């Protein structure tokens, strides 16, 4: 991971470096090597993307067949639809509610688990274990715990004399509950990545910092965490995209309810295209294009604003 | 890292857009199909294979496979039915739509109750009625209330296959502890409310909650039917015209949801949300006094009751007033697909449908799955009488079905966008539990559906 990568095309005048100029034959063969990858990309990415784009300008009949071009109608509808605006805001809220806590908690845990204490290996494995759970398994387990009438969470609250919480039935709380489930699911992976990062922090730097009198929190804040920023940045970017695409836990826990309070962008696309007998592929495709734009913009922002603070060795 | 960015972005794009290109273009609907000449199978060379898409998994799927196997053995060398599980009901209909587009439909398909109007409008099915009329097939053995659901404009469009009804389940042990008569199920909403009050912990009763049921749009459809009101107009979509407006903001629905909300607000009823499984789990834990559920859940409920050591009581679905109409059936039915299938295939599919309807096979189906038998005679089969001795609770369900008087309201509503209507009811219901006025909430839902319904009706032509 380097910040500035230089390749041949960015060099002002390539002819000045004759050694780099590929031979005609080499050019052809390099394209040949790219064919398999390009073919896969074309079939599974570029074609569907182009197709979605076209679909987003078309209407659909009751069987879901494209039925004539409707211009930008779907996009105008999206602009005016207050429910869709709520979906967008909710999606962003969900990303913040998942990505920030996941990174914060797993960073703290990884620092704690990096201590040399007897039996720490057990805890390292235990905390990383959510990684091994499938979305479906984790969601079903959380559904049982969230059950308003018989769930263990309300049971525990009850022993403290606190009333029942509608974890996934109260529209004000449901999104937080889904976020909680997601945080738990993603923590294992985050912890593994950060632990690996911690393991590769060179001992000599730590040693030098210690000699300079840094210890404890100071050492962690000024030396270790800056050295972990590449991993943190990586988790931020992948975690955001992951979170934008969350589907399984929403589908199993709430189906986008109650009252649409957990319908994020991806779930809304699914509902329009496939759920409840719908086959509004045009409208769903328009939403998918919006999702693509959201992903690209957020990712670009992260690279533009955050990556500068990343410390690459 | 820079390269990674574009990969990530396009991967995100791929992940969200790839499923949306499920289908491209394909053949058109066309006019209503008719049953082929009855000799089509004899004329066919060799074996006729019929693909059969269904949504039955677990025990239900096993029982289905058993029926298919028996049929294939009986017709060995002539017909092979190839059942394919296509996921849940919603997945089934989605896949069917895609198959119509790509011209790869099965000749026989199981579609859920809510898909009726859509299947009619799809222009791809051969109405069951045209086979019945052609063969003068004796329909007197088919339970009329079950067939009623799949009848539009006096024509039976599909053969009922798996049928259930909602009933009231109660925990007899908790009834006894609360000083209630365990042998008498509450019959009206008021009676359920009273019993729930006595049962609930809030009022020093033995149950965590006196009542708890899923926020399930089906229940609202039921209560509307019991009072003789309509779910959609005109005529519940049962006449010559398609339903052009929803009417579920009527008095019955308002009273039902007002009643439900009060129980929740008073702390007598729980609220486990929309998922029927969550409400079932709560009742199965033995801490809920009364719940509403489908007859299809009976097997699981009985098992859980034995495990938790309580006796399971079953009663009629509660009415607003005593002696009102019965509720509506739910479930799924079988459609013979006309488009792009040979006459021999259609004929073979019809043969299988008739086979399923035979009393002995319906007894196998009924006892293996807990769904109602379509055939009335199935109940006299020894296999069936023996099974009902183990599940006396099921007799309540049979009685409820028999006592239902077939009418436009008890046929149930059907409209092009039924699945969306049910969801809209559920969302309104959630809003009502959060403090919305029941009448206003339901009216808002009715209005919210109008443009989608108009669009559907325009599109269906």
From TrEMBL, chain A:
Keywords: Cell membrane, Membrane, Transmembrane, Transmembrane helix, Transport. Residues 1-22 are annotated as: Disordered. It is found in: Cell membrane. Residues 88-302 form the ABC transmembrane type-1 domain. CDD domains: TM_PBP2. InterPro entries: ABC_transporter_permease, MetI-like, MetI-like_sf. Pfam families: BPD_transp_1. It is a multi-pass membrane protein. The chain crosses the membrane at residues 30-50, 87-113, 125-146, 173-201, 284-306. Belongs to the binding-protein-dependent transport system permease family. This is Sugar ABC transporter permease. It comes from Brachybacterium halotolerans.
